[in-house]
Amino acid sequence: MISKALGKYVQSLHQKKYRQRHGAFLVEGGKSVLELLSSDLEAEHVLVTAEFVAQHRAHLPAHLALTISTEYELTQLGTLATNTTALAVARLPAEKPLPATLPETGLLLALDEVRDPGNLGTLLRLADWYGLPGVVLSPGCADAYSPKTVAATMGAFARVHVWERDLAAWLPTLPAVVGVFGADLQGDNVHRLTLRPSGVLVMGSESHGLTPAVESCLTRRLHIPRGATGGAESLNVAISAAILLDNFFRNQ
Amino acid sequence: MISKALGKYVQSLHQKKYRQRHGAFLVEGGKSVLELLSSDLEAEHVLVTAEFVAQHRAHLPAHLALTISTEYELTQLGTLATNTTALAVARLPAEKPLPATLPETGLLLALDEVRDPGNLGTLLRLADWYGLPGVVLSPGCADAYSPKTVAATMGAFARVHVWERDLAAWLPTLPAVVGVFGADLQGDNVHRLTLRPSGVLVMGSESHGLTPAVESCLTRRLHIPRGATGGAESLNVAISAAILLDNFFRNQ
């Protein structure tokens, strides 16, 4: 049974304003809730159907207080069209310091005004696949902890470190030896380069590309060759990032 | 001014049943409508705001009958949250014969039960970027001409050939020399192969992968290596296809 106060609290977390005020965010659906529970993140409330508990008892920590709920309640409180399994409230992770040596020892993904939560979630999932040390978001990006972003990460929200930085201010502070890579139709053909996963790969918004101030911070422009008979003018930002990341990680 | 009959007709095309009955589909938004008008597809009705006409007169064929509409009307008739520019009704293209020699002379993308129209549209856009001769869809895929798919193609709907085939019946009819490629965690590392763009690349649904009957038609299983410290279990179907296609096209 869900109290009125808990219901109101959960619903308030649909909005960024309340996620920030309460330092908490929503995790919806059984798969995402199980990823949360097996991660370092702290779960504040876990609402589950009796059926879900019966199916996943082995993966639910014994000390965990569960609130048994109906499918109707989970759907009412959340943002999914239907939720037949589980919903949790998790604490927003505190931002860890961004190690100054990082872009020399690993590849960071930096996103400049990526406003679509679906694209952002897909990019976080990609960062998780390649084991990137983290993702740096410009203040104009979609919220990494909005319900849509969390859903699109397919569980990666529980593992990927996220930092928020004004990219045009942050990138110039990096040591000169750090490569700052970006996609550019006039850039170097990635098929002819031997890239190593170190530095920062900056991806811009789909409609406007990189903002001029961030664009001017690039030290290396990369181009994904289009097929000889190809027609499309561009690729989706997550698709471009995937192809570029695969090119960074193929020479290990 | 839009007649009641035209309005009803346009709205009926939100549904596949009526798209098939009338042999027509919707194209929404200025960019997509301009792509339609510069393609070989036939536009049956073109509804535009006066502002859009003023801005794009040079790209609108002189013989074209335009119906001047308000933003409110375009939004009411279509599926977009707002449409301030244009909406067209296009004839569904007739399916051309699938040349029997094709998979030897070019790379076809085949999709097995890709049910999400956003993913399907992104995949068609990707096929357009690489200039693939076309995409073969299993009957269980999303409709290539649904409004959501068309929007996600970002204009590629006007250029990419689409065929519908029962993949488990069609793939075995291909000459033995044709490679039938698919993604498989136990497959060969694509970074260690020299792939050429010929044959068929089959991608399965995100939740279930390839159906068993299609999976058994593969002659070559490909694996996209995950980062050494990567956490994600899988990649989105369009992301996987993008990385694989880049690996097919890098050795030209």
UniProtKB/TrEMBL annotation, chains A, B:
<dbReference type="InterPro" id="IPR051259">
    <property type="entry name" value="rRNA_Methyltransferase"/>
</dbReference>
<dbReference type="GO" id="GO:0032259">
    <property type="term" value="P:methylation"/>
</dbReference>
<dbReference type="InterPro" id="IPR029026">
    <property type="entry name" value="tRNA_m1G_MTases_N"/>
</dbReference>
<dbReference type="GO" id="GO:0008173">
    <property type="term" value="F:RNA methyltransferase activity"/>
</dbReference>
<dbReference type="Pfam" id="PF00588">
    <property type="entry name" value="SpoU_methylase"/>
</dbReference>
<dbReference type="Pfam" id="PF22435">
    <property type="entry name" value="MRM3-like_sub_bind"/>
</dbReference>
<dbReference type="GO" id="GO:0006396">
    <property type="term" value="P:RNA processing"/>
</dbReference>
<feature type="domain" description="tRNA/rRNA methyltransferase SpoU type">
    <location>
        <begin position="107"/>
        <end position="245"/>
    </location>
</feature>
<keyword id="KW-0489">Methyltransferase</keyword>
<dbReference type="InterPro" id="IPR029028">
    <property type="entry name" value="Alpha/beta_knot_MTases"/>
</dbReference>
<dbReference type="InterPro" id="IPR001537">
    <property type="entry name" value="SpoU_MeTrfase"/>
</dbReference>
<feature type="domain" description="MRM3-like substrate binding">
    <location>
        <begin position="8"/>
        <end position="71"/>
    </location>
</feature>
<dbReference type="InterPro" id="IPR053888">
    <property type="entry name" value="MRM3-like_sub_bind"/>
</dbReference>
<comment type="similarity">
    <text>Belongs to the class IV-like SAM-binding methyltransferase superfamily. RNA methyltransferase TrmH family.</text>
</comment>
<dbReference type="InterPro" id="IPR029064">
    <property type="entry name" value="Ribosomal_eL30-like_sf"/>
</dbReference>
<protein>
    <submittedName>
        <fullName>RNA methyltransferase</fullName>
    </submittedName>
</protein>
<dbReference type="GO" id="GO:0003723">
    <property type="term" value="F:RNA binding"/>
</dbReference>
<keyword id="KW-0808">Transferase</keyword>
